[in-house]
Amino acid sequence: MDVSSIRVLIADDHRIVRQGLRQVCELAGGFTVVGESEDGREVVKLARQLQPDVILMDINMPILDGVQATRLIVESNPKARVLILTMYQQDRYVFEAIKAGARGYLLKDIDQQDLVAAIQAVHRGDALINPGLAVKLLDEFRRISQMTDEVQNIEDLTPGEMDVLRLVAQGADNKAIAEQLSLSERTVANRLSCVYEKLHVNSRTQATLVALRRGWAELNEDG
Q1: Rounded Cα distance, 182 and 178, in Å
Q2: Highest CATH level, class, for 6-145
Q3: CA neighbours within 13 Å on the CB side: how many for 168?
């Protein structure tokens, strides 16, 4: 491996996209693809293990989406350089990705030369936003800056609710949780509903993210 090359980690749930991005990097020269991931949980683990220079991150991925994965990666390593590469150009995705710590947000219709230049720019420490989205992003930041930050109080979870949350974060479904904790599936579902309410979330993915961010659970290294 060329030690002077930019080490790239590719995260996308479509194999053909990962293959295409790998080919772009290999043909351009000056890049080494150190790994590929098809889901958000896996890319968080690989980012910690491989310490790539730049992470090409899709938004729509299973288990954890690209925004959630970016947030976890940057929280673990504030110097991580994540470049979002996606089909989504909705304002909320752009804003959430940048808030999560992404250094750039580009659409997948970018041509190869521009993508190569973007990876190099992010590696240098530059920030990149698709030109058509930049104005919307600035408007959103301006709107948010005029609002008072809202502090969200999270109620304490009971030990039983915490047990359920930890297993959810490991990827277990309600049936598996019930078997492991010797509970009925209905009890598990009720406890999970209480978890959602107390954490102010509405999905297993969001609950997992809160648990990981607060140190209540760890990524399942076997999963």
Answers
A1: 6
A2: alpha beta
A3: 26
* Residue 101 backbone class (left: φ over 0; alpha: ψ -120 to 50; beta: rest): left
pTM for the model stands at 0.62
In the chain, domain spans: 6-145, 159-213
57-106: per-residue pLDDT in tens?
999 898 889 999 999 999 888 888 999 988 876 666 777 888 888 888 88
Amino acid found at 129 = I
Helical segments of the chain, H only: 15-28, 40-50, 66-76, 91-100, 112-124, 131-145, 159-169, 174-181, 185-199, 204-213
pLDDT digits (tens, 9 = 90+) for 18-67: 999 999 999 998 999 999 999 999 999 999 999 999 999 999 898 889 99
Q: Is 67 left (phi over 0), alpha (psi -120 to 50) or beta?
A: alpha
Residue 32's DSSP bridge partners are 7
Q: Scanning the structure block, which residue is given the tokens 């020269």?
A: 29
CB 80 within 8 A of CB 47: yes
Q: What kind of fold does domain 159-213 have according to CATH?
A: Arc Repressor Mutant, subunit A (1.10.10)
Select from 164, 176, 175 the least CA-distant residue to 204: 164
Locus of tokens 């947000």:
105
Residue in this structure with the two tokens 């030990």, named with its chain if needed: 159
How far is residue 134's CA from residue 24's CA, in Å, rounded to a whole number? 25
